[in-house]
Amino acid sequence: MPDQKVAHRGRPDSREVVELTHLREQHPELESAANLQIELVQLQGRVQGRIPLPSLTVDQSELQRLIQDGRPLLRFEQLPLNWSDFRFVLRETAATLHRHEAIEDEEVHRVDALARDGNALEPVVQGWFSAISVRTAAGPVTVSADAETSGLDHVFTLAMRPFLVRCAEAAQSRLDLSGWAWGYCPVCGGEPEFAAITPAADRLLICGRCTYRWKFDPLTCPYCGNNDRTRITSFASRDGMYRIAACDVCSRYLKAHDGRRASRPLMLPVDTVATLPLDAAAMQKGYRA
Predict the structure, then answer these.
(1) Tens digits of residue pLDDT in 62-71
(2) Alpha-carbon gap, residue 70 to 171, rounded angstroms
(3) Contact 273/41 with Cβ under 8 angstroms?
(4) What is the pLDDT of residue 93?
(5) Are residues 30 and 151 in the same domain?
(6) Using an 8 Å Cβ cutoff, are 204 and 195 in contact?
(7) C-alpha distance across the termini of the chain, in Å
């Protein structure tokens, strides 16, 4: 495999790549996962710099209605999608995952077939995105039964991330979503993938699709709403930099970066790899991500 230390000749590595490189040097058992994340970070960075910031305009009264109803604000037609760029990142994401044995040949063939057929790809992506983004607080997520994307959610999530991150950046800078009290993302409806505990002991959930961050009660399960402290199990890494909150009602867990003990801010690609031993510990206890 080619050296991962330099993303492109003459271009400095991102902070995430530098940290991932250090992580794999310090923890050789995490080398494979770190190498995968390095390639994904570099791939997404190549595309993200070209994506314009969307305008996401919404009047204050409509914004408050969305927040009250628990309806994410982003709609498919607002996505700054360049289909040539998306087809490229979709194919390359699948190829990268396949090189690292994270998906099978059959999944790669399905992605290639979708990417080749431009007319078929857009409605498939729209269906994948809308299956979660049209959720409300009143009802569960409508899980897409589309055979085209079945088993490919991880590939689509990673391929869409550069575009969704730009939407999250626009929302973070232009909209006041501080009143959002739900356990899923106010921008795109995605579930939290990680959390950040601030020095003031607040908990910020981090969306697994667009990486938007929002404040959420630190002792409530974002997945099922359980707030019985006796039914929330918590444990930490040895150095205290990471914590897990596991729900004994729905059996799901969420990892967190503890800013009260950490020497640097949370970096999702880095901390996802660094906490793989915590994933194993949680699963051994019967919890699931």
Answers:
(1) 999 999 999 9
(2) 16
(3) no
(4) 98
(5) yes
(6) yes
(7) 30
